[in-house]
Amino acid sequence: MSHLLPVFAYGTLRRGQGNHSLLDGGLTAVHEVRLPGHCLYSAGRPYTAEAGRAAVAGDLLVIAPGQYTGVLARLDRLEGFVPPDGGLYVRVARPVLFRPEPDGPWQEGAAWVYHGGSHFDYRDDLLVAGGDWLAARQRAA
Questions:
Q1: pLDDT at 1
Q2: Torsion (CA) 60, 64, 67, 72 in degrees, nearest 10
Q3: CB atoms < 10 A from the CB of 57, how many?
Q4: What are the per-10-residue average pLDDT scores of the chain (141 residues)?
Q5: Closest Cα partner for 51 from 105, 135, 126, 138?
Q6: How far apart (Å, rounded) are the C-alpha atoms in residues 32 and 49?
Q7: Which among 7, 44, 84, 137 could disulfide-bond with 61, CB atoms 3.0 to 4.6 Å apart, if both were Cys?
Q8: Could you give the CA distance from residue 61 to residue 53 in angstroms, rounded to a whole number?
Q9: Is the distance from CB of 38 to CB of 48 less than 8 angstroms?
C-alpha cells in the first residue's frame, strides 16, 4: 500500500465537525466511505477496532500531495499517535469502500485508520449503533 493513502475520518475530523478545520487547505477531496470489518466505540471520544462483519461510516480525506506530510503530522498529533506504532491511537492502513460521486457506485481502496489503542475500553455497551458517530450524535441531541 502506498504511503500517500487518504485518511478515514469517523469522528471529529468529519465534515462540519470541530477538528475538520485542521485540514483547511490540505485536502483535494472528501468522499463518503465505509470501513468494513470494524466496530465503532465511544467513551467521550470515538475509536475503532477490528471486529467481524460490522462496518464504520465516515469521510475519506484525500490529502493534497504537497500538503501530505504536514497534514498527516497534524493528524498524528491530534490522535496522540507516536510513529511507528505507539500512543493513544494507532495509525494502520486498511481496505475501505468509498464513493467518488454522491450516490455513485462504491469502489475499493485503502486508507489510514486511527484505531483505538490499548488505553481504550472495548465493552459492548460502548458500541455506537450503526457504526456512524455523527448519526448517533444527531439521534442523541
A1: 45
A2: 20
A3: 18
A4: 85 93 92 97 93 93 95 94 86 96 95 94 94 89 72
A5: 126
A6: 20
A7: 7
A8: 24
A9: yes
